[in-house]
Each structure stands twice: as structure tokens, then as C-alpha cells.
Amino acid sequence: MRILAIDYGKVRVGLAVAHEKGGLPRPLQTLKLNAAFWNSLKRVVSEWEVSKVVVGLPILIEGEEGTMAREAKEFANRVGQETGLPVVLYDERFTTWEAKGVLRESGLSERRQKGKRDGVAAALLLERYLESEGA
User: Fold this and answer.
1) Chain-wide mean pLDDT for the chain?
2) Nearest alpha carbon to residue 124 among 80, 94, 87
3) Are 59 and 96 within 8 A, CB to CB?
4) What's the mean pLDDT in 73-86?
5) What is the Cα–Cα distance from 16 to 127, expressed in whole angstroms?
6) What CATH number is attached to the domain comprising 101?
7) How many structural domains are present in the chain?
8) pLDDT in tens, 19-56
């Protein structure tokens, strides 16, 4: 079984997956948060045999929760309802910033980076989560 990481955003949602016993997280697609989102997410969960979901919790640098953290919590609750899977919230500070750096170093154009950034951020989130769990 696998763990799915979600980098939540108001417009786009990045996905990454890894085996729950560890291994390198793999960025998947970025989904638009639109009417088709929940069906697309359920399809990913089924195709990848996901057993747990990790949703990034955007904690402010000061360590406090802002508006986006509250939205991410509501989103995580809905993910659990829609998929029937356990959902864990995990601090995602700096993952998008790090993803930008990784993609910049890869030599991709700005346009191609934008389409991959959320998936790479989700993979970084999942990597941190797995390390914290000792996987």
C-alpha cells in the first residue's frame, strides 16, 4: 500500500506517492481544484492503492496557523470523507520554496516549472513525513 501526499492550494493541488514502508516519493500530476477534482482524486487513490493521505499544513514562519492552514484543515477533512482513508496533516513549511529551487536547478523553463512545482512540493512533504515516521 502507498501513502499519497497532497500539497493543497486554492487553485492547484500537487500530488505525490510513496510506498508506506519508505522509498523515494514520486511526484504525480497536479490537479485543478474544480468540479472534477474529487473524482480525479478518488481515481488516483484507487490506481495507486493508497492507504493513507498526508496533507500539507501551511504553518506560518512564526509557527502559527493562518488562513491557509485553516483551509488546509477543512480540505483534509473533506479528503477523509471523500476517500474513506485516514488523513494526517503535516507541516509543509518551505516545501514550495524548495521545489522552486529543485526545478530551477533542473534547467526546466519557467513555464514547465510551474506545472511541476506543486507535485515536487508534495514529494518533498512526503519525504519529510516518511523521515519523521522512521520509514
Assistant:
1) 83
2) 94
3) no
4) 96
5) 10
6) 3.30.420.140
7) 1
8) 877 778 888 888 999 999 999 999 999 999 999 999 99
